[in-house]
Amino acid sequence: MKPFMHTQELTEMTEASTAERDLLAQWGFTSTEISTLLWLRQWYHQDSEQATRHLEFLRLLVRSGDLELV
Q1: What is the DSSP letter of 64?
Q2: CB 58 within 8 Å of CB 67
Q3: How do residues 6-32 score in pLDDT, each as one tens digit?
Q4: Domain assignment present for 2
Q5: pTM above 0.70?
Q6: Residue 1 lies inside a defined structural domain of this protein
Q7: What is the CB-side half-sphere exposure of residue 48 using CA atoms within 13 A?
Q8: Please, are residues 24 and 34 in contact by the beta-carbon 8 Å criterion?
Q9: What is d(CA 36, CA 14) in angstroms, rounded to the nearest whole number?
Q10: Which residue has the higher pLDDT, 65 or 69?
C-alpha cells in the first residue's frame, strides 16, 4: 500500500475488502483464512513493486551503457 494514499482511495479499498471478505465467507473460508488471503495478496503486490523497481534500474544501467549484457 502507498504511504500517502488519498482518503477516497482508502475508503474504496476498504469497501472492496469488505465485499471480498463477504464473498470469501460465502465460499466457506474462515475469518482467519480470509485475513491470510488478503494479507498474502497485499504482500505479493508490495513484493512485485519492489522487483519492478529493481528491473527498471537494471534496464536503465543497460541502456546507459553502465552494465553490459553477456
Answers
A1: H
A2: yes
A3: 455 555 556 668 888 999 999 999 998
A4: no
A5: no
A6: no
A7: 7
A8: yes
A9: 16
A10: 65
Among candidate residues 39, 36, 38, the one with its CA nearest the CA of residue 20: 38
What's the DSSP call for residue 4?
A: T
* Structural domains counted in the chain: 1
CB-CB neighbours of 35 under 10 Å: 13
Residue 24 CB neighbours (<10 A): 17
For 29, other C-beta atoms within 10 Å of its C-beta total 15
Whether residue 70 is contained in a domain is answered as no
Residue position matching grid coordinates 505479493: 44
Residue 17 CA neighbour count, 13 Å, CB half: 15
Please give the residue range of the domain that contains residue 55.
7-64
15 domain-assigned: yes
CA–CA distances in Å: residue 14 to residues 3, 9, 28, 49, 66: 15, 9, 21, 21, 44
CA–CA distance, 45 with 25 (Å, rounded to integer):
23
